[in-house]
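hey m, so remember when u said the tokens were messed up on ur end? i reran from scratch. heres the input so u can diff it against urs
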Amino acid sequence: MRKWMLPILDVGIVSAVRSGRVRVVAAVERFEGAEVVLTDGSRLAPAAVVAGTGFRPALEPLVGHLGVLDERGRPTRATPLPCLHFVGFTVTLGGLLRGIGIEARRLAETVAA
């Protein structure tokens, strides 16, 4: 009988955090223009914000006021506004993780260009 194994995905994030290239901060409370206000009261003006929301996205507090979510709280489009992108909300026959990888690569290429 085969034992279950959990996949561990690390494409460099651990070393990026350790080196200081990526910084873990408090949760996002709100956006104010180009600044992000964190729950500890600090403010940042990051080049990008990546929200890993898990299986229950709970996007309403972050972007609900922008009118980009449907009645279930899911994005209406992958790129509903300039500079606002959602990855991982498209169900495909190829599997969710595979689809997320494809979407993430496409988005990275778009942002890099």
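this time it looks ok to me. The chain has a mean pLDDT of 84. if urs says something different then somethings off w ur setup not the seq
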